[in-house]
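#struct-help
A.M.: can someone run this one for me? Single chain, 255 residues.
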Amino acid sequence: MIHRTIKSCVTGSLILSSVLFAGDDDTMAKALMKLRAEVEQLNTQIQDQRDATKATMRSLMMEKNDLEATIARSDLKIKQLEQEIRKLKKEIAEASKNSEGIKPIVLKAITQLESHIQSELPFKTEERVQDVRRIKEEMQNGIITPQKALAQVWNSYADEIRLTKESGIFKQTITLDDQERLAEVARIGMVMMYFKTPDDRVGYVDHNGDGWYYKEVIDKEKREMILTLFDSMHKQIRTGFFTLPNAIATSKVQR
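D.P.: on it. C-alpha cells below:
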C-alpha cells in the first residue's frame, strides 16, 4: 500500500514537472520571439538611419559642389572684369593723344559693362544700367569730356567688383505673382539674393530659360531660415554660420 502511494506521488510529480517545464518552454519561446522581433525592428531602424545619413551626405556634397562651382564662377567674373580693365587701359594708352580717340574705347567699355550688369543678379539692375547709360549720353552730348567719362566708367567697373564682395539688406521693387511690390532683399555678394515682403512672404531669386524670377518659399522650416537671416542682418550680424535654403543663382559667364 505504501509502495503504491509512493509510486503514485512520483508519477504525479513527474506529470506536474512536465507541465511546468512545458509552460516554461512556451514562455521562453514567446520571449525569444519578442526579442527577435525587437532586434529586427532595431536593425530596420539602423538601416533606415544609415540610408537617411547617406542621402543627407549626398545632398550636402552636391550643395558643396554647387557652392564651389558658384565661387569659381564668381571669381571668373571678377577676373574677366579685371582683364577687361587692363585691356582698356592698354587701348587708352594708345589712343590718349586726342580726346576723339578715347571715345570709341569708352563706348565699348560702356556696352560691355551694360551686358555684364544685365546678366547678373537682378539687384537694382535698372538703376545700375541707367547710371552707365548716363555717362554715355553726357559724353555724346558734350556735357563731359571723354576723359571724364572714362574715369566714371572706371568707377562703375570698380563698383561691380565691390558688389561681389559685399553683403547687406536693401529695398527694391520685385515682381511676385505678376505684381510689382516693394520688398527688402538680402544680397550675399552677387551669388544669392533673398527677399522679404512687408507681409512676411519670403523667397529667393532664381534663374531659368526665361530669365530671373522671384521664387516664394512655403516650407515652414526654410521660411524660418530666411527670416532669421533678415533678423540677423538687421542686427548687423553679417558674419558667422547661417543655414539657408539653397538659392545659388547662376548667370551666363562668357569664357
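A.M.: thanks! The CA atoms of residues 9 and 15 lie 10 Å apart.
D.P.: also worth noting: The beta strands are 167-176, 179-188, 192-196, 202-208, 211-216.
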